[in-house]
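I am writing to request your help with a piece of structural work I have in hand. A protein sequence and the structure tokens that stand for its backbone fold form the material at issue. Please examine both parts with care and let me know of anything in them that strikes you as inconsistent. The record follows directly beneath this note.
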Amino acid sequence: MRKEYDLSSAKRAKDVPHLAKLQQQATQGKVRITTYLDSDLVAWLKARGEAEHKGYQTILNEIVRKQLSPEPSLADVVRQVIREELKKAA
């Protein structure tokens, strides 16, 4: 950085309306990232998004979120059904 730059009168981001809005949006749960995906995967995401009337990034977000909280295993489902049926029989 050059020595002759004088930033003493510069405003903080929170004092500039459009920058403050960007900072606020960043704390509301969404974060912009840059990543590389295979082109066939992006094509599939876009096709699925078009079929569901959603953006491909929304589809990708839903898929990743589902992986964070996977469905219960088949064994867990069977155990739950057996418990419910035993309660009904008692």
Summary: The CA atoms of residues 4 and 10 lie 14 Å apart.
